[in-house]
Amino acid sequence: MKAECHTKSPERAVSPSRVDDDVLLDAARACVLDQGVRRTTLTDVARRAEVSRMTLYRRFPDVRSLLTALMTREFGQLLARVSGSVTGQNARARLVGGSVASVRAIVADPLMRTVLDRDGELVLPYVVQRLGSTQHIAEQFLLAQLAAGHEDGSVRMADPAAQARALLLVVQSFVLSHGPATVDVGAEALLAELAHVLDASLAP
Question: Residue ranges of the DNA-binding region (predicted)?
């Protein structure tokens, strides 16, 4: 029998124009946390959000578009929180600190952990086939930090696009492999090594 996420009350019709996207995305988040990505349906989300299924379908025609919007929102908010709290004497220090803090925040985030732990195979296409929206958000953050580092002289001059892509690949590997990588190595010790790797590769 299929498990359903907890609901508050029977479905009721609401005009699509009156429903904020965050209401729908919050409902999707609750469903994913309850039962994982694969078992979440648009019907579950509509019921949780207390809107009609047609209201949800008009905004998000399928589960994939809904979950893409959810992950983009969650990752964007997480990155904004991290970037707003990072300090450093120069752009390189802020880039390294922000990258390490982002890994720490992502692997501790309940939604990100649920996706990786329960539905990790869904991430595979974004590793071997194409970059996703969250990766592009991360890359834009890295590009901005690299530009600042080139300007203040704290980051080695190179093609910014290539540097950002290389940094993205390194940092995301620490996110995706965090579980098995920390079975017999301390998480903070591993993050300290990530900081050394990034700092050494970026130094002029």
Answer: 41-60
Structure tokens at 78: 């997480």
Which segments in the chain show pLDDT lower than 50? 1-3, 7-16
Residue 89 to residues 19, 96, 185, Cα–Cα distance (Å): 44, 11, 30
Q: What is the pTM of this model?
A: 0.83
pLDDT tens per residue across span 21-45: 999 999 999 999 999 999 999 999 9
- Rounded CA-CA distance 131/126 in Å is 5
Residue 146 and residue 164 in contact, taking contact as beta carbons nearer than 8 Å? yes
Q: Please say whether the beta carbons of 48 and 8 come within 8 A.
A: yes
Name the CATH code of domain 71-202 (choices 1.10.357, 1.10.132, 1.10.3210, 3.30.450): 1.10.357
